[in-house]
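Whiteboard transcription, Tuesday session. T.W. wrote the structure tokens on the left side:
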């Protein structure tokens, strides 16, 4: 029965085709539009105005009563409605003493007047800040009648954090927007195994990213096939691919075919130039900020076939930088000896290229740490991941096909846990806020967007997570080594 059912039930009856029309407020239209069958034709019309007055259907109207033209007792029905909407009913009915009647001069309960006075009045609300489980001194949000309040915590002495939580200490009927979590998008640390007869340049560039702890293969430290996030083979090939982690081949020998299917076809010598073009996500990640036209080479390895691999960068219009991203498998191949190129003297582009390949090989699970309700979120698997579990307040779901795309339809914290082939697990977290139209509680401006290092939570410091921040110290770290080694090799090549 439409007249005795609640709004949710009547909306369901309408969507099921059991009601020809339904009376709803405009803010409920979105639910109807999102859930109506494709074959359902929808139309809307406003309720007519009363006694020639304009229609007023855009507010939060109360219940509307009407008398059917076909009722058997029209006079009794009208008398009942007159009583239900009378001053007597609103002043004497115990269930209506907190109702805000639209009638003039209705005597309201004093308790109701107190509640109504709280809406639109100024208030001071305590705001609690918790950083990594430790509560800081609370702030006070001084809210006026019309504006918003800003709370600032200064001089906290915080340079690193994992999770900060801001909470309004107030009881209200809508608690979902009383807490706002801020997760640091941390600079992930990776274990890297490097096997090379001449590892100088690669070791320095990997170390300079600030993300890689590099172990060199030697007679006293033999190569391993598990336990690392990234395996770099320079001029060599293992007998089998590692059981976990991403793989990067530099100047590979012919036997790379048995591991990747890539067929090599000898060496080209001369003076060659580099180029790159593409629009894929892999291309954008690896070539971000890179100017390949700066690079030159005196020799490179010719690639005959590379099925399953994307050509990211070319030398002499032939592929030299190949990449493969399939599920949790990530392989990069640089078909040249970097000592026979100008790459090492590119104090910005070369370490940035190494950094970008690391970003590709060990992709972040999630691109940022704050989303809005209803956003589509792409979750990337770590290299070697066998399962990914996403946990929210509504439950958890486990996936084994990657990447994973989810709709963030539950507000709050999302915890993403990945299980790797070597038995390790890694966890990432992000926060989904309720729709902005339902709350104005959040960060101020662009502050704390992907923070890496911050001088104080709540301050006006705007910290950007940008690879350009590492240029200066990368250049310094490489300058001495590059100058010494390249000075000797330059004469031989040019």
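and on the right, the sequence the group agreed on:
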């Amino acid at each position: 029965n439409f007249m005795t059912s609640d709004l949710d039930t009547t909306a369901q009856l309408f969507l099921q085709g059991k009601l020809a029309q339904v009376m709803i407020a405009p803010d409920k239209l979105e639910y109807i539009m999102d859930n109506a069958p494709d074959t359902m034709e929808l139309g809307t019309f406003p309720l007519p105005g009363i006694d020639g007055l304009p229609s007023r259907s855009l507010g939060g109207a109360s219940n509307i009563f009407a008398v059917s033209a076909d009722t058997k007792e029209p006079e009794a029905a009208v008398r009942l409605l007159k009583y239900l909407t009378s001053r007597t009913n609103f002043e004497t009915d115990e269930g209506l003493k907190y109702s805000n009647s639209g009638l003039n001069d209705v005597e309201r309960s004093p308790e109701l007047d107190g509640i109504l006075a709280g809406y639109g009045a100024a208030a001071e609300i305590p705001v609690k800040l918790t950083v990594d489980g430790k509560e800081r001194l609370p702030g006070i949000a001084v809210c006026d009648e019309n504006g918003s309040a800003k709370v600032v915590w200064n001089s906290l002495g915080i340079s690193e954090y994992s999770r900060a939580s801001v909470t309004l200490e107030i009881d209200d009927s809508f608690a979902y927007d009383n807490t706002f979590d801020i997760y640091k998008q941390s600079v992930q640390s990776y274990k890297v195994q490097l096997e090379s007869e001449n590892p100088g340049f690669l070791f320095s560039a990997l170390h300079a990213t600030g993300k890689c702890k590099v172990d060199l293969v030697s007679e006293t430290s033999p190569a391993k096939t598990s336990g690392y996030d990234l395996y770099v083979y320079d001029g060599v090939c293992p007998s089998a691919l590692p059981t976990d982690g991403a793989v990067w081949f530099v100047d590979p020998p012919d036997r790379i075919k048995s591991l990747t299917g890539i067929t090599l076809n000898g060496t080209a010598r001369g003076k060659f130039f580099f180029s790159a073009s593409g629009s894929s996500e892999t291309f954008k990640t690896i070539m971000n900020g890179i100017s390949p036209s700066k690079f030159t080479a005196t020799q490179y390895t010719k690639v005959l076939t590379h099925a399953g691999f994307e050509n990211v960068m070319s030398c002499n219009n032939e592929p030299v930088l190949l990449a493969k991203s399939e599920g949790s498998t990530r392989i990069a191949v640089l078909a040249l000896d970097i000592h026979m190129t100008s790459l090492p003297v590119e104090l910005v582009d070369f370490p940035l290229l190494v950094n970008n390949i690391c970003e590709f090989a060990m992709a972040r699970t999630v691109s940022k740490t704050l989303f809005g309700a209803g956003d589509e979120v792409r979750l990337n698997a770590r290299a070697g991941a066998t399962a990914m579990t996403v946990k929210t307040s509504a439950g958890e779901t486990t996936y084994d096909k990657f990447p994973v795309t989810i709709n963030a339809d539950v507000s709050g914290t999302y915890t993403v846990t990945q299980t790797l082939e070597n038995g390790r697990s890694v966890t990432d977290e992000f926060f989904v806020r309720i729709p902005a139209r339902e709350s104005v509680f959040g960060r101020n401006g662009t502050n704390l967007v992907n923070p890496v290092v911050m001088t104080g939570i709540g301050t006006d410091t705007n910290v950007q997570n940008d690879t350009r921040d590492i240029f200066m110290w990368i250049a310094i770290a490489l300058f001495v080594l590059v100058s010494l080694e390249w000075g000797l090799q330059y004469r031989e090549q040019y």
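Someone added at the bottom: The CA atoms of residues 286 and 353 lie 7 Å apart.
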